[in-house]
Amino acid sequence: MLKNRLAVLAGAAAAITLLAGCGGDAAAGGGPKLALDAALPASVPDGARIVVGDPTTQKALELSGQLGKVTKFVQFANLSGGPQTTEAFRAKALDVGAVAEIPPIHATWTGLNVRIVASKFRQDPLNHPIYELGVAPGVEVKTLADLRGKKVAYSPGQAQGALVLKVLKKAGLTKEDVELVELPSTGDIYPNALAARQVEVAPIGGVAIKRYLSKYGKDGATTIRHGLRDDAAHLYVQTASLEDEGKAAAIRAYVAAWGVAQDWIDKHPKQWIEGYYVKDQGLSQADGEWLVDNAGHPEITADWSAAIERQQETIQLLAKETGNEEIKAADLYDLRFQAVAAEAIKAGAAK
Amino acid sequence: MSGQTATIGGVRAKREQQAVTTRPVRRRRRLGPGKPIRFGAAIGPVLLLAIWSIGSAAGWLDPRVLSAPWTVVTTTGDLIADGRLQSNLLTSTQRAFVGLGLGILLGTVLALASGLSRIGEAVLDGPIQIKRAIPSLALLPLLILWLGIGETMKITTITLGVFVPIYIHTHNGLRTIDSRYVELAQTVGLSRWTFVRRVVLPGALPGFLLGLRFAVTGAWLSLVVVEQINSTSGIGYMMELARTYGQTDIIIVGLVLYGILGLLSDGAVRLIQRKALSWRRTLAD
């Protein structure tokens, strides 16, 4: 009788352990160590592998026929943006993530050790902003000063949240002068919250701007420009990945491929609209054209000093508003990668 | 018990009274729901569709908030022409079925383990009730930490969502098997395994099938949660992408698809129920 019971228990235990699989294999390199100030290896050793969350570049590499050059050492994961990449970093399931200005700062504040290894900006950034301030139907906001007393959507930890703080600073307002409504900005939450008049002002980006105006413009919905730089886009990695020689080499090679891919996107708008926006993302041709026009041209420089300065200003503002310690922006950048993407683009153009 | 005998006694008294009186016997009132209506299952959904269509046609429903049914149909047509709908549906279906299969297996094994042995119950039942109280969405961050962002995590999430209803209902069905059958099995000297095969499993079947009805829809529901993370395909992914771009009509296509899938899988399970439990004589027949 007891034997039977034990057999039953053993069976149940086995079923439970079946479920407990194994975690991610990123950031757990067993290869030779590399100091954080040692020169980067020029070639990727056999067997080195990194997991990269950068779906847009993945598509660009595919469309430009360059994907085969990186698949030997890169495994792509379809995630990007701060919340998802930091979560995957913690799960040791990711080496490289594509994000905007804020996530590297936030990741550091939440105890992750990360470094920026590639940066892309926009030429003429003030006329090609990523975000505009959406204004709810029937609300009068013509200038930044009109924000006083309005209900503004605010998501701490995301680029949109930092943008709101920067806009208030530019308008000479404090957090007390407006009513900040904490709301995460994912999917279509902001445009919907504006349309339903749950908030009066919210930063909306990309094709959401066009759709918001075309859907709710007849009800009196408007957008205004904020006149600030919001164009930073980075690749960032876990520092642990850089300490593994094989992974560091793979990251360097990926950053070079990334640079060439950004350049290809800029030079082939037709293929990009057709292959990415229409076929892959399910947008209309018109939406794709609008997005390409609004993005303008990318700027990938071999000198990060100005970018580091701007990032420091952002950190100061955020630290003050969120009560976190002020970190050094320079510590977030791995300067060994500073020229990698720009030089790869040059070399590609020379061919 | 005594109340029951009293009512039975009452009924008997009434009958005797009716037999004694010479008045013509009136037709007794029907207490069950009566004969089934033909195509009765379709009436509710069709009514819902009619209200939606009328509301859209009359302009009571803002198309920006809820697209009209015909917009959903044309969008579905576009998605099918693209091939996006089929490929996403295929991925989702595979995930749902693998998760469902594992969940059914796990739920049944655990229900037997905890239903047939006191030790099993003491060890298993508590943790499973705790798991039941924890929403899958809230577990997701932990599952990502433990299992990464690959397919393992996705299928585990579905399995965890599915096994609970199977367990609960099978366990309950098993525990409510009439003790007469257990005594009979002991009297004729059945081995434990034969007892499980001949008495326990058939006896727990009604409960198991009810659990399965919850589980099949649960499997589809879990999809939308897991496909928002590191997916490049699936209905959940398609809807999430549409959210990013504010394409309400695609979101509703996804919702309608979930509704149809849920209704179809539920219908399939009910069909199995009817076939498998044909020996039952209940209020439903």
UniProtKB/TrEMBL annotation, chain A:
Pfam family, one: NMT1
Keywords: Signal
Leader peptide range in chain numbering: 1-20
InterPro entries membership: SsuA/THI5 (IPR015168)
Protein name in the entry: SsuA/THI5-like domain-containing protein
Segments crossing the lipid bilayer: none
Organism, as annotated: Kribbella flavida (strain DSM 17836 / JCM 10339 / NBRC 14399)
Annotated ranges, domain SsuA/THI5-like: 85-205
From TrEMBL, chain B:
Record bears the keyword Membrane: yes
TM helices/strands, residue ranges: 37-61, 96-113, 133-149, 155-174, 195-216, 250-272
Major site of localization recorded for this protein: membrane
CDD domains registered for this protein in UniProt: TM_PBP2
Membrane topology: Multi-pass membrane protein
Cell compartment(s), UniProt: Cell membrane
Keyword Cytoplasm recorded: no
Pfam families named among the record's database cross-references: BPD_transp_1
GO cellular component: plasma membrane
Family membership noted in the UniProt record: Belongs to the binding-protein-dependent transport system permease family.
Keyword terms of this UniProt record: Cell membrane, Membrane, Transmembrane, Transmembrane helix, Transport
GO BP terms in the entry: alkanesulfonate transmembrane transport
Residue stretches making up the ABC transmembrane type-1 domain: 89-269
Name of protein: Binding-protein-dependent transport systems inner membrane component
Residue numbers spanned by region Disordered: 1-32
